[in-house]
Amino acid sequence: MTLAKFLSLLDSRALFFSQPKQFEDKFEGSFREPVLPLTADKDQPLRESAHTATGIRTRTAISCWHMNEYESAAMWAQYVTNNEGIAIRSTVQRLQHALTFDELGDVYMGAINYYPYQARDDSVWSLFHKRESFAHEHEFRVLVVINDLPKADELGGIQVPADLNILIERIYIAPNTRPWFTDLIKSVAQKYDVDADVIRSDLDKDPIF
């Protein structure tokens, strides 16, 4: 995440969940091709599916996580600009205990399934399927079916209250980041009473020859 998003997380003590309509992947919430031609009217399933997919992308909000035992150089390169990024490490159990959903809406969580084409149904579970070209992301999602849609539309998502010391196990600094940036993150975390260790990326380690 960017420094701005990290500061927002600390200052609001809430994790932002984005509506899928904000995502770059235009296939989010779309359906597998075999689902479409189910009626005699060839145009009807296309219209209905497009309407349903648009509704799913609007009435849900998602927090996306990368599942891995180690850092991914590809993920750093994809999501960090100017070598000034942060990643927070958590676990499924920490997510379950740290986030407070109350009346925000029904909650679903799980790993993404990757297929040559998209999901088989028209429910929120279609948002747990992505094309195989995204398989390198090893993505895990927490999804909320939004109750207060007007407010979510205004923000582009929802803020989910979080206990930061449960949520954040470690804070990783992006590779090739300048030392002052690491010091800044440590200082900010301390000011917001976040106890997690701040660690420079393993990708910055020197080789042993």
Task: Give an overview in words.
The protein is of the alpha/beta class. It has one domain. The chain is 31% helix and 24% strand. The protein has 7 helices and 10 strands. It has a 3-stranded antiparallel sheet. A 3-stranded mixed sheet has the order 3-9-10, with helices on one face. Strands 1-8 form a two-stranded antiparallel sheet. β9, α7 and β10 form a beta-alpha-beta unit. The two termini are 33 Å apart. About 9% of the residues have low confidence.
Indicate the topology.
Elements: H1 3-12, E1 14-18, H2 43-59, E2 60-66, H3 73-79, E3 86-89, H4 92-98, E4 105-111, E5 113-115, E6 129-131, E7 139-146, H5 149-155, E8 157-161, H6 164-167, E9 170-173, H7 179-191, E10 197-200
> What is the 3D form?
globular
Structural category is: alpha/beta
How many discrete structural domains? Answer: 1
Tell me the helix content. 25-40%
Give the H and E element order: HEHEHEHEEEEHEHEHE
Order of strands in the sheet with the most strands? 2-7-4
What gap, in angstroms, lies between the N and C termini?
33 Å
Task: Give the C-alpha Rg.
Answer: 19 Å
How does the major sheet shape up?
A: 3 strands, antiparallel
Number of strands: 10
Average predicted local confidence, pLDDT: 84
Characteristics:
209 residues, globular, alpha/beta, three-stranded antiparallel β-sheet
Quick rundown:
This protein has 209 residues and is an alpha/beta fold.
